């Protein structure tokens, strides 16, 4: 059976005294949603994510990571994929640190890599409606980018459905914000959400099988899937919602 060592990825490591601007640069140029923070010995201190760097409004700043670091889930190299999945589900993170002796970070296991394996091993059951979140926060296509920035920091969500004339027309994510470079509040230069959003939005109906939703999440490598009943967005399903329905602890 595969273990953490089999899915180990080399990941960028930062120090607590690194500036937020450095973290912003690394996250903008790479596909990671989170970065691990280590001490001078390479031992795990915690992690930061895209939402954390978006909270610092200035593109040039002396602010360090120290005040943003949170506890990171971690495993040993021989941890099972089910153990990792359970940790990701509990922490609702997109990565788990793999630690060697003295808590030194050997690398990470990413949710994008482990998710397809777990859902193939433990076929998700039930309907989308049974697993989705019904708290939906949307933005309008003509909203300024600064509104999305505010919602990222207020809600902690990673992406938002975009509406236009009461129709779902796309999705906009915190990575879209980061990649645009328009991360200073009040400095979006007139840019609106429609200019950044991904379109068309990939959707699912509430009565669809969860296994069909997982296929869409994997095929399109998206983190959040809008659930649509007719023209109305009635929910959101993400990878963690799917993990919540898997019997990982018993595997």
Number of strand elements? 11
So, the CATH homologous superfamily of the largest domain? CBS-domain
Contiguous helical run count: 9
The fold-level CATH name of the largest domain is CBS-domain
State the shape.
flat
Task: Quote the distance from N terminus to C terminus.
Answer: 12 Å
The largest β sheet comes out as:
3 strands, mixed
**Beta content:** 15-25%
What helical percentage do the residues reach? Answer: 25-40%
Query: Which CATH architecture of the largest domain?
Result: Roll
Order of helices and strands: EHEEHEHEEHHEHEEHHEEH
- Helical/strand content category: alpha/beta
Strand order of the largest sheet: 1-2-3
- In the CATH scheme, the class of the largest domain would be Alpha Beta
Mean pLDDT: 91
* Whole-number tally of structural domains: 2
Global Rg: 19 Å
Low-confidence stretches: none
């Amino acid at each position: 059976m595969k273990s953490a060592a089999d899915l180990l990825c080399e990941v960028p490591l930062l120090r607590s005294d690194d500036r937020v601007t450095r973290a912003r640069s690394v996250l903008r140029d790479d596909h990671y949603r989170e970065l691990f923070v280590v001490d001078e010995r390479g031992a795990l201190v915690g992690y930061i994510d895209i939402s954390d760097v978006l909270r610092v409004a200035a593109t040039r700043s002396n602010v360090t990571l120290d005040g943003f670091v949170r506890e990171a889930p971690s495993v040993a190299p021989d941890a099972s994929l089910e153990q990792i999945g359970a940790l990701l589900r509990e922490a609702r993170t997109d990565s788990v640190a793999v630690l060697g002796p003295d808590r030194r970070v050997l690398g990470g296991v990413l949710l994008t890599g482990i998710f397809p394996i777990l859902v193939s091993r433990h076929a998700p059951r039930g309907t989308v409606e049974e697993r989705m979140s019904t708290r939906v926060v949307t933005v309008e296509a003509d909203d300024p980018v600064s509104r999305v920035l505010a919602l990222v920091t207020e809600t902690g969500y990673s992406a938002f459905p975009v509406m236009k004339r009461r129709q779902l027309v796309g999705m906009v994510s915190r990575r879209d914000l980061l990649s645009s470079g328009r991360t200073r509040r009040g400095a979006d230069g007139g840019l609106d959400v429609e200019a950044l959003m991904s379109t068309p939005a990939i959707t699912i109906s509430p009565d669809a099988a969860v296994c069909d939703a997982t296929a869409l999440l994997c095929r399109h490598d998206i983190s959040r899937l809008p659930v649509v009943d007719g023209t109305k967005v009635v929910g959101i399903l993400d990878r963690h919602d799917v993990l919540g329905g898997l019997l990982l602890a018993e595997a």
